[in-house]
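Quarterly update from the structural biology core.
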Amino acid sequence: MSTIRLSRRALLGASATLLAAPALIGRANAAVTLKVATSFPNDPKFSTARIWYDLFLPKLAAYTDGALVTQFFPDNQLGQEADVVSQVKLGVVDMMLVGTPIWTNIVPECGVFDLGYLFGDYDHLQRASATPAAAKLEELLISKAGAHFPAWGRNLGARNFMTKFAFSGPADLAGRKIRSLPNPVVTETVRLMGAAATPMAFGEIYTGLQAGVIDGLEHDAPTILASKFYETAKFFTLTKHIHNPFGAFVSNKTMDKLPANQRDGLTRAIKEATAEHFKRAAAIENEAIDQLKGLGVTVNDCNREVFRELVKPMWGRFAEKTPGARDLLDAVAATFKG
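Predicted structure, tokenized:
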């Protein structure tokens, strides 16, 4: 029988390997942390993104067995929306909770959802987003922007005007500086409605109102409430000019690096959170409007048909300028009635 003799160096090396093994195993099983960014405030009751995020977290934990966890960065903590869009494309940020308008600068076809008065309501938006034409847009987001959009959700309300002055029609908006998203379609919509459209990053709105740089903005009621824009603007007019999607945009680089089971669990969690968020949104919007009234905001209705007729010619011009959006525009028209 032969005897195997190990040198002291070999014994020490083997011991070190055994000691290191648990640490290596621990790192292999450690949860992957996803960075989730948004410009929306961190308000659990009226922030579109925070409400969605709170619905999403338990589903993510359940469907990935805790293998994926998150860090939440609200309030533009990782930069303005345009900056975060670039970070998503690079894979520096894993998920962005935002509406579609900010993506129009990269994927012009997204501008369909920014066209004023194109959608009758959010149910119409939901019907259009279930068409093959919308699925093609999802593919364009991946190829052009490096972002997946697994589920079409909605903001907590239509976009309306919050201003420092009362108005009843387009003539009253002449010369008034209304903040619009830094998006050419939204900016043109606001201009056609009669205002001096003023593109501005979300994080600059509050100080812009305080300093008199702008006379108002357009956004949904819960976001206005959560961001405290009512502190300097006291008139909320139900123009309901845009119904655009909201949801989780996931970096393609993040999707590529996740194993299939985690990728599937993430996607399932996003879809279910978005569906639940959609169902709750209308009630949250109504509650936000009631609270704005209680805070001294005057809520007015208006003749939306007058504004719609001013904006409507833009639809055809957009189709001519963005031929790749024609199928989606046709799908919107075809789904107008449920």
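The chain has 13 helices and eleven strands.
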